[in-house]
Amino acid sequence: MLKNLANYYFPRSLDDAGSILSEKQTKNVIIAGGTAVSLLRDQTIDGLVDLKYLPLVFIKETVAGYSIGAMTTAQEVFQSSALSGPVGDLIRKAAGNIGSTLIRNSVTVGGNLVSVFPWSDLPPAFLALDAAVVSRHEKRNRTIPLMKLYSTHPRNILKHGEIVTEIKIPKASPNSATAFTKFSKTKNDYAIVDVAVRICLKNKKVFEAAIALSAISKLPMRARQLIA
Ligand SMILES: Cc1cc2nc3c(=O)[nH]c(=O)nc-3n(C[C@H](O)[C@H](O)[C@H](O)COP(=O)(O)OP(=O)(O)OC[C@H]3O[C@@H](n4cnc5c(N)ncnc54)[C@H](O)[C@@H]3O)c2cc1C
């Protein structure tokens, strides 16, 4: 419970959100879907900055691949017809595995990626796809590959008040295939292990293979070694 919460902000631009988050006298934090923030027991938080009126809900196909806004919900991703092919299938499958419909209607892509719990289902999918987040801090944007974001907890990579605005997912090479499996006790339960896979064939041989796992470690990880 946030016992000392005094202010709830609805900024109308990213720069307004940035200024509220950078106030020095008060501690204001971002709220997206609120499913993790609502469970915080941090008595130092004075204010919540709700990103819901910012233009961060979108799923676009670009020349380079896909771009998904940070405030897009898991349910919107799961049901999106804009996501297709092996890359789109992997993302939709991971999103569809998040909790229940009720939870998916609240959980946002940005919140799932930033708050990253061992059971978070989107991070391994995006890791297998070599995705990167775009963030904004002090009126400047930067792109952070997921491999870097998860080299430690994202809270150590993102500065206080840095807003993740979108995730960019590159197109897969031709002859690619993907798969996503969540092992859990029941359909709505947290993952015991998530496995996301992308392979690409060239001349009938595996040219590239990316395997990402989560729930078996604190942070999602790419499998790097072949154990014979
Ligand atoms: C009952 C239940 C079951 C669940 N089951 C699953 C499951 O099976 N699989 C799964 O993956 N998840 C599941 N979740 C969701 C998961 O545990 C997190 O609660 C969720 O991913 C957080 O997303 P959110 O949008 O609600 O973020 P919030 O709670 O709003 O925010 C979480 C954190 O991220 C920060 N943040 C949010 N958005 C941004 C942004 N754009 N830029 C920078 N920082 C940001 C916030 O400041 C906060 O610190 C479940 C949650 C509940 C309550």
SSE inventory with pairings:
Layout: E1 7-9, H1 14-21, E2 28-31, E3 47-50, E4 59-61, E5 65-69, H2 74-78, H3 85-96, H4 101-104, H5 109-114, H6 122-128, E6 132-137, E7 140-145, H7 146-149, H8 154-157, E8 163-170, E9 176-184, E10 191-202, E11 205-214, E12 221-222
Parallel strand pairs: 1-3, 2-3
Antiparallel strand pairs: 4-5, 5-8, 6-7, 6-8, 9-10, 10-11, 11-12
Helix pairs in contact: 3-6
The chain binds flavin-adenine dinucleotide.
CATH fold call of the largest domain:
Uridine Diphospho-n-acetylenolpyruvylglucosamine Reductase, domain 3
The first-level CATH class name of the largest domain:
Alpha Beta
Oligomer: single chain
Question: What string, H for helix and E for strand, traces the elements in order?
Answer: EHEEEEHHHHHEEHHEEEEE
What radius of gyration results from the CA coordinates?
A: 18 Å
Share of residues in strands:
25-35%
* Assigned CATH architecture of the largest domain: 2-Layer Sandwich
- Biggest beta-sheet profile: 5 strands, antiparallel
Report the mean per-residue pLDDT as an integer.
Answer: 96
Helix % is 10-25%
Number of domains: 2
Inertia-based shape: globular
Small-molecule components bound: flavin-adenine dinucleotide
Count of DSSP H/I helices: 8
Low-confidence stretches: none
Rounded to the nearest angstrom, the distance between the terminal CA atoms is: 49 Å
Overall number of strands: 12
